[in-house]
């Protein structure tokens, strides 16, 4: 039987997340990544232990029974022994109450290995999206285009600074990168050649609003195997409100057929953004807290790979989330999860990016601890050739890492590299205690800085949304596996 | 057969501390404006 003394030294809440979702009670063992479905009694026992830990009460059978009584739960009698026996089985097996691997910290080589760059090929845009962090494309500067020389230097930079890594990533970003399509074309050609000379492959991606996605451009993206992220917010009125042209007209009517056409050309696109993929992504705001309807709108258009994400806004913005929005957002994720399960059952499948969890083939611990790598594995390059930790920091002088036109462009500003490297998940007090730490990796530096002015303090609203998404994601996964089991596809052993 | 708990996934994430870190996987960005590849939503390419 489970020795309850174990819980004197084992903080339950941060290591085993037990929660209810839909008709299930779920326990997620954070350190191993295992998942269990609990019956009512077992769920109540785990919650009682959590409560006793919080009150620093002694954890004993009598204590658990008392909590159950006080909270009006069914008392368990003999069943409690059974439950504790089953819990002990799982503990011994290493799938529940597992300990956190000790002393692991991301370690990095002295010189940063930058393997991914974001090339801001156009600091200009043909739309004026309300929530654009880039100040509608210009990043607080003037509207400029990157030239060929700078672009080539950018490619040389990533090929060189990626050291022994053979896989590099180049993302064409803006503003709207298709406003500088000529350069995109030239750089893909240049990149392929320069990469091959060094025995490296470059994976190209492009993020676009879709306005200029004509046949010629679509063909080019297809031929060159370029992964594409396309922006669409959902229902026409939702999209047009936030994504107008400079003259105020909405862009839905223009971009939707083009995005649809492009998306349906890539039916095999990976839901995990592997190989050559596409994603149609949108942003939800205070104005569409029922964003599940926007996701379904896109799914109904025949788009299969969808990501719709919360806006990050300052408190003064009208579209910023307000007090009281959180519950509605949570409900939208709940509804979306149920609808996804339903449609999958009917063969009307689509993928919602944040509900994808590849439990068994997920990334390794090292990756989970280091997160996005902004400022040391990933940098953004402005049209002028200035280097920043990531696209969201572009134009912020204090975060400038260097320039492609420096004598030694590979020499990034050391203090900044250090600062970003050390802002990993274990450096953040809230994250150390958070059950979502290995899926979230400590949140987005840019969002954290803009809300807390500090790289190691988290943006709490973002955390709430992150955790909710993860809860629903795990639930969707469990439902999928359980229905597979009915058809004889089990077991789900990934040990 | 357990009566109270049904195990759905048995995983061993901690073991990847030793085996991981090859760096072949895609960079992950969580921000809304980008691919939004939160680490938890990715796969290992090994
Ligand atoms: S950023 Fe928030 S949700 Fe993510 S690990 Fe840290 S505390 Fe948890
Ligand atoms: S800091 Fe945020 S926006 Fe920048 S790369 Fe990391 S997750 Fe993305």
TrEMBL record, chain B:
Pfam families (UniProt xref): SCIFF
Name under which the protein is recorded: RSAM-modified six-cysteine peptide SCIFF
Organism: Desulfosporosinus orientis (strain ATCC 19365 / DSM 765 / NCIMB 8382 / VKM B-1628 / Singapore I)
